[in-house]
Amino acid sequence: MSSLSLAVRDSATMLRRNLLHARRYPSLTLNLLLTPIMLLLLFVYIFGDTMSAGIGGGGADRSDYIAYLVPGLLLMTIGSTTIGTAVSVSNDMTEGIIARFRTMAIHRGSVLIGHVIGSVLQAVISVVLVGAVGVAIGFRSTDATALEWIAAFGLLALFALALTWIAVGMGMVSPSAEAASNNAMPLIFLPLISSTFVPVDAMPGWFQPIAEYQPFTPTIETIRGLLLGTDIGNNWWISIAWCLGLAALGYRWSKAVFNRDPK
Fold first, then answer.
1. What would the pLDDT profile of 78-109 be if each residue is shown by its tens digit?
2. How confident is the model at residue 60, as a pLDDT?
3. Which of 32, 131, 175, 253 has the lowest tally of Cβ within 10 angstroms?
4. Left, alpha or beta for 125 (phi > 0: left; psi -120 to 50: alpha)?
5. Backbone phi, psi, residue 109, to 5°
């Protein structure tokens, strides 16, 4: 077999292994998935009327805030599910299975590729589930074409890939699963200080750069523009640049740690 065929075969085997682990131990994924769903329901049904009046400048209409909130919660869902990736990778590193894989005649990159593809699939499924909840409580797209839906889905998948590679690196350098979970907490924290819940220009002036110059805000604004028809501006290329940069950083980081000789 060629080296490419071996890489594909071994990566498929590692992908199957990670999906089996996720199926046998679903509690972590479900717990992380509940966080964006609970925030969605909380903000819509507790704060929805007030937030809609503040954002729209008119009367209270919860549907306006649902439309504003869902794109941001989809990105938060990706950040939440990738914490499970960091924990899973950390478990593999600390329990010795990675050391065994290093001694086997398998493609070295297949271990990481299996984790990444499996995690991206789980993140995409989680996004679909949270999106379904959003639709069930009233989210509706505004004149989005099929091409815009495809572009939005592709951007979500690219964002999931970028955060997954970062989470893999965090998991590989963490001494325990608890440490991996703590190290990956910024992936949940950053959406809270982005434009997920309120517009950036509604924040205090000193805080606006913190919310604006991070990967979540331009990606959220691009998804809103594609699905709701709002102005995208230069957010689309900033978002793609963040995704490609984070993916490259996470890949190089993870590869360097994986290839490091064990102590």
1. 998 888 889 888 888 888 777 777 777 777 77
2. 57
3. 175
4. alpha
5. -75, -15
List, for residues 32-71, the tens digit of each pLDDT value.
778 888 988 988 888 777 777 666 555 556 778 888 999 9
Question: Are 184 and 262 spatial neighbours (Cβ–Cβ below 8 Å)?
Answer: no
Please check whether residue 183 is in contact with residue 174, taking contact to mean a CB–CB distance below 8 angstroms: yes
Is 145 exposed, middle or buried (CB count within 10 Å of its CB: 0-12, 13-18, 19+)? exposed
Burial label, 7 (beta-carbon count in 10 A; 0-12, 13-18, 19+): middle
DSSP class per residue in 210-258: HHHSSSHHHHHHHHHHHHH----TTHHHHHHHHHHHHHHHHHHHHHHHH
Report whether 171 contacts 95 (CB < 8 A). no
Kindly write down the DSSP assignment for every residue of 91-135, as one continuous string: HHHHHTHHHHHHHSSS-THHHHHHHHHHHHHHHHHHHHHHHHHHH
Mean pLDDT of the chain: 86
Q: What's this model's pTM, rounded to 2 decimal places?
A: 0.90
Structure tokens at 246: 């984070």
CA–CA separation, 57 and 220 (whole Å): 21
Residues contacting residue 130 through CB under 8 Å, at least 6 positions apart: 33, 36, 37, 40, 73, 74, 77
Q: Where are the beta strands (DSSP E) in 140-187?
A: none
DSSP state of 20: H
Report residue 219 CA to chain centroid gap: 11
